[in-house]
């Protein structure tokens, strides 16, 4: 259980970092305007610097996989934009910039492998797909409030923002999720074939 907890924590942290990178480097970053930014200490360049520091400090194969597996916010372009911003300003040493470029390259390679693995599975049976993301479920759980089955990682990400069942808005918490062990076995067997 502690392995699963640390995996969930790593997934959540990766999703949070990618989401913040999207806010700071994505297409809508120009909307991040604050009146009197100095009053609030709002410095987007400094935030990019701190955010990229976190990526570099957490750099390990397991975390790279979590970053690449984040289907909600991961985009190669965000990492490219972060690199361009670091190169344009003097917020990072050239060594740190090269390290971040290498990290971005490894995340993208991992993402490509993940996409290829999904293609290699061929047509995924509907009962094995998460209803929100339309991706193969690896750890299916039952939402007792609606009777819907979802992938644990996807519903946990939803629960970070809202303690509700996404299908009927009834209250839902992580401890209410019920593992679907029989379905998981069938999915695992299908993958092995």
UniProtKB/TrEMBL annotation:
Q: Where in the cell is it found?
A: Cytoplasm; Nucleus
Instruction: Write one Pfam family the protein is assigned to.
Output: U-box
Please name the top-level EC class of this enzyme: transferase
The record's annotation in InterPro entries points to:
Ub_conjug_fac_E4_core (IPR019474), UBE4 (IPR045132), Ubox_domain (IPR003613), Znf_RING/FYVE/PHD (IPR013083)
EC numbers, comma separated: 2.3.2.27
Name any Gene Ontology BP term: protein polyubiquitination
Q: Which reaction does it catalyse?
A: S-ubiquitinyl-[E2 ubiquitin-conjugating enzyme]-L-cysteine + [acceptor protein]-L-lysine = [E2 ubiquitin-conjugating enzyme]-L-cysteine + N(6)-ubiquitinyl-[acceptor protein]-L-lysine
Task: Give the principal location in a single coarse category.
Answer: cytoplasm
GO MF entries? ubiquitin-ubiquitin ligase activity
Residue ranges of domain U-box in the record: 123-193
Xref: PROSITE patterns = U_BOX
Keywords, A to Z?
A: Acetylation, Cytoplasm, Nucleus, Phosphoprotein, Transferase, Ubl conjugation pathway
The lineage's top-level taxon is Eukaryota
**Gene Ontology cellular component list:** cytoplasm; nucleus; ubiquitin ligase complex
- Which pathway does the protein contribute to? Protein modification; protein ubiquitination
What is the role of this chain? Ubiquitin-protein ligase that probably functions as an E3 ligase in conjunction with specific E1 and E2 ligases. May also function as an E4 ligase mediating the assembly of polyubiquitin chains on substrates ubiquitinated by another E3 ubiquitin ligase. May regulate myosin assembly in striated muscles together with STUB1 and VCP/p97 by targeting myosin chaperone UNC45B for proteasomal degradation.
Into which family does the record put it? Belongs to the ubiquitin conjugation factor E4 family.
Name the PANTHER family for this protein. Answer: UBIQUITIN CONJUGATION FACTOR E4 B (PTHR13931:SF2), UBIQUITINATION FACTOR E4 (PTHR13931)
Write the protein's name.
Ubiquitin conjugation factor E4 B
Q: Which organism is it from?
A: Ciona savignyi (Pacific transparent sea squirt)
């Amino acid at each position: 259980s502690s392995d699963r907890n640390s995996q969930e924590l790593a997934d959540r942290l990766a999703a949070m970092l990618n989401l913040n990178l999207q806010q700071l480097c994505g297409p809508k970053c120009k909307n991040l305007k604050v009146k009197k930014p100095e009053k609030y200490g709002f410095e987007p360049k400094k935030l990019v610097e701190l955010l990229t520091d976190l990526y570099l400090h957490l750099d390990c194969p397991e975390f790279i996989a979590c970053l690449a597996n984040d289907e909600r916010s991961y985009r190669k372009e965000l990492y490219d934009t972060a690199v361009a911003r670091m190169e344009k300003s003097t917020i990072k040493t050239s060594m740190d910039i090269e390290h971040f470029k290498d990290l971005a390259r490894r995340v993208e390679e991992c993402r490509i492998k993940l996409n290829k693995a999904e293609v290699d599975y061929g047509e995924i049976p509907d009962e094995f797909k998460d209803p929100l993301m339309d991706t193969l479920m690896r750890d299916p759980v039952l939402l007792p409030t609606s009777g819907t089955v979802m992938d644990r990682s996807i519903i946990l990400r939803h629960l970070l923002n809202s303690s509700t069942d996404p299908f009927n808005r009834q209250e839902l918490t992580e401890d209410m999720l019920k593992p679907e062990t029989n379905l998981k076995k069938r999915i695992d067997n299908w993958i092995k074939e």
